Amino acid sequence: xxxxxxxxGTKDVTSQxxxxxxxxxxxxxxxxxxxxxxxxxxxxxxxxxxxVTNVSYHFRELAKLGFAEIVETRPVRGSxxxxxxxxxRALFGDDDWRQMPKPLQRVITGTVFHDMVGRMSEAIEAGxxxxxxxxxxxxxxxxxxxxxxxxxxxxxxxxxxxxxEVEVEAAxxxxxxxxxxxxxxxxxxxxxxxxxxxxxx
Length: 201
What we know:
Layout: E1 3-5, H1 15-21, H2 25-34, H3 41-48, H4 52-64, E2 68-76, E3 79-86, E4 90-92, H5 94-99, H6 102-126, H7 146-177
Parallel strand pairs: 1-4
Antiparallel strand pairs: 2-3
């Protein structure tokens, strides 16, 4: 995910860089796209219905902050088109999240969800989503009290931390034996659902 809410103290960027990177909804959407594919400002502008000059500015700002970089340049109609890739994840802790305005939280959440769906769709189309017999994809509605909610959030946080440790250990083994890494995507989510409306007479 381009911007993902993580456990306290788990950051790939400074809070100041993060705030600047997420200071505009267009930048949030750009990060969402760059997290799973390379794209040029002109292509992004066409897909999103934005003005190319404005979009190009936000791409350049994200590059200055270290969230994106140019990986390819190609001639297009007498000018040069730059293709960008994402370079850094925007993880932030609970304090960062609580300090963000609610409208920005909703934009980020929507972008993260869009990114997740994009990754899943690409995997399904490529045939990798269910290529392994032990792939995991489940969801379930539950009813909890406050204590149960708190415990569920703690479990999700612990899982996130353990998966991060697994990734570090895997990187060390890959460096030693030189084998090809297995690209994978994990999704952890827990949120309050709307109350179901009772049947009307």
